[in-house]
Specification:
Structural class of chain B: mainly alpha
Helix content of chain A: 55-70%
Distance between the termini of chain A: 24 Å
Strand content of chain A: under 5%
Oligomer: heterodimer
Helix content of chain B: over 70%
Radius of gyration of chain B: 26 Å
Order of helices and strands of chain A: HHHHHHHHHHHHHHHH
Order of helices and strands of chain B: HEEHHHHHHHHHHHHH
Largest sheet of chain B: 2 strands, antiparallel
Number of helices of chain B: 14
Number of helices of chain A: 16
């Protein structure tokens, strides 16, 4: 399955330690750099402002020309309206349940495999590792039809199992990231524990895992975001409205009430807000991610 | 018999290897059950006629022959997808590069700008798609309202045969922040002394960009190229949510058509053969990309 490479911000300090960007700055001049930054970020940010603004407006202000940016008055009704048209609380709960499974799977199964790949010697281990890395290149689509037939056969369609069980059976991308991190942990602590006769499971759990907290947080966030955003999985495996996730519920809402822009924007805001909160609370873990993906040129 | 049966004692190395395999077991099960098994099953299914309600029937190459000789939608959806890939991927790389160059400057509040450019790329895709349907709405949407303010009548966007694909591409470009961050990391890895040396040699800013920045950045750009080709061949969700493939199937992308075949028409064998064609096409393209890489991607180790 292919996922967008996990992506993260870098600490601002590193951005301009010196005059690295000199060529471009000379071309544009300092003032125009600042101006371009302001205009550019405005273009990227306006869709959000427009979304929140629409969600707080009454219809007569939504359909107005020239567009009105600041609602007058502020209307909260669009947000409560969403719950009338769609069982948003159920969608939230369902999405959280599935996301939690992904987080737990990433933390336990993936770290166990990552520990094996980074610490335990075994014949064929490196070949197995290469196989796992190439697994990342297999498009999701090639597996989709047989997976559906398989889950239909064991009566898992329209349950959460197709979306949660695979998460407990390892995701290559997270295993890869965790392995990269484990390789940076010095071995001395473990060696002492081995001499004391501790088993590998205990070493993994009580020595490596606590040291790996930052990397585990990164992986937890990525897997949470993946599950929160996933659309294709729920679309194919869930049928009953009560089991829908936010993505699927929002799409159904959109399909049925295409012109109710106030409530639609309120619902979108509610889906985006948690992701933004996670991002702002955990920016440094996003930063960590780029180091772990090992794609620094 | 003096000795009780000797317990088979494992050497340390064997014990370690066993532990290793055990720790890898959950992933191994998942890999076999949810990846290798299905990939193989998909291949076999591609030679079958299987519509769930009737038993599967071996039809040999019939699905593939139908696809290439008797299915206008197959060619059309492939064409739409190629359009999307060929327009989106270069623009995506250019936008990411320009944004990264911009953010690599010294300026006040650079962290804030970086966040603003990055955040759209983490927006849940369905929420982003719905937001963009509203932004692109011809009468009251943000873009056409703004255009009208300056006296331009904007296109119908998602309802226009000509503009539906560009509209989806525009929305996808809004999410270029992820690639931007990767390029930015690459930019920061360019050793400063190369710029200094170039400057001493009298290179102007453009020459320095062309002969220092671009070669040093080429592995990063290659990485983004490979991944975004693979990802954009599978474009699905935005079209599914925003246009449903319309108008007049102008946004019927390959994945969308495959989805319809499989999960609306329940034509599982046919869909499996479509999936394999995409798999092979993407794989071939990736290999071509790697083949061409030696012409423009610069790896330091080879040179010095």
């Amino acid at each position: 399955m292919i996922r967008e490479p996990a992506i993260e911000a870098l600490p601002s300090r590193e951005i301009h330690p010196s005059a690295r960007g000199r060529p471009l700055r000379r071309l544009l001049g300092r003032g125009s750099v600042q101006l371009t930054l302001v205009l550019g970020s405005l273009v990227f940010a306006l869709p959000f402002v427009w979304m929140v603004s629409t969600s707080l407006k009454a219809d007569r202000q939504i359909f107005a020309f020239p567009p009105i940016w600041v609602p007058d008055p502020f209307i909260w009704g669009n947000f409560s309206a969403v719950f009338i048209y769609a069982p948003m609380h159920l969608y939230f709960f369902n999405t959280l349940t599935i996301a939690l499974a992904h987080v737990l799977g990433a933390i336990f199964t993936c770290s166990l495999a990552a520990y094996a790949f980074s610490r335990l010697r075994a014949p064929g281990r490196d070949i197995i590792f290469m196989v796992m890395v190439s697994q990342m290149m297999v498009p999701y689509i090639v597996t989709l039809v047989p997976l559906y037939l398989l889950f239909a056969k064991i009566n898992w369609v329209d349950t959460f199992y197709p979306l949660t069980v695979p998460a407990f059976l390892g995701t290559p991308f997270y295993i890869f990231m965790l392995r990269q991190f484990f390789l940076t942990i010095p071995m001395e602590l473990e060696e002492a524990a081995i001499i004391d006769g501790a088993g590998r499971l205990r070493i993994w759990w009580s020595i490596v895992m606590p040291l790996a907290k930052p990397a585990l947080a990164t992986v937890a966030i990525f897997s949470f975001m993946f599950a929160w955003n996933d659309f294709t999985g729920p679309l194919i495996f869930l049928n009953t409205r009560e089991k829908f996730t936010l993505s699927l519920g929002l799409q159904a809402f959109m399909f049925e009430r295409r012109t109710m822009w106030g409530p639609l924007m309120a619902a979108s805001t509610m889906m985006i807000a948690p992701i933004l909160i996670v991002f702002f609370l955990a920016q440094k873990h996003f930063i960590q991610g780029i180091a772990l993906t090992g794609i620094k040129a | 018999m003096t000795n009780a049966q000797p317990k088979p004692r494992l050497t340390n190395a064997a014990r370690e290897a066993l532990t290793c395999y055990l720790f890898l077991l959950p992933w191994g099960i998942g890999f076999l059950a949810f990846v290798i098994g299905p990939v193989a099953a998909s291949f076999v299914l591609g030679f079958m006629d299987y519509e769930i309600v009737t038993p599967a029937r071996w039809v040999g190459l019939a699905n593939y022959i139908d696809l290439f000789t008797d299915d206008a939608r197959f060619g059309m959806s492939m064409g739409n997808t190629l359009y999307y890939v060929l327009v989106f991927v270069p623009l995506h790389i250019v936008v990411a590069l320009l944004l990264a160059l911009l953010l690599n400057q010294k300026a006040r509040g650079i962290a804030v700008y970086r966040t603003l450019f990055y955040v759209p790329s983490i927006v849940p895709i369905v929420a982003g798609a719905i937001l963009w349907v509203w932004i692109l709405q011809p009468e009251w949407g943000l873009i056409n309202s703004t255009l009208r303010s300056v006296g331009i009548e904007g296109p119908l966007w998602l309802a226009s045969l000509t503009w539906s694909k560009p509209a989806l591409i525009l929305m996808a470009l809004w999410g270029s922040g992820a690639a931007m961050i990767i390029v930015l990391a690459g930019l920061q890895g360019v050793p400063q002394h190369l710029y200094e040396a170039a400057e001493i040699d009298g290179a102007n800013p453009w020459q320095r960009f062309q002969h220092v920045t671009i070669p040093m950045l080429s592995p990063t750009l290659f990485f983004i190229l490979v991944l975004s080709v693979i990802a954009s061949f599978q474009v699905f969700t935005t079209a599914y949510v925003m246009t449903g493939g319309g108008p007049a199937e102008s946004t019927l992308f390959y994945m969308l058509y495959l989805y319809r075949r499989a999960f609306v028409l329940l034509d599982m064998g046919y869909a499996a053969s479509m999936a394999w064609i995409l798999f092979v096409a993407v794989l071939a393209l990736t290999l071509v990309n790697f083949k061409l890489a030696s012409r423009w991607v610069y790896y330091e180790a080879e040179q010095s």
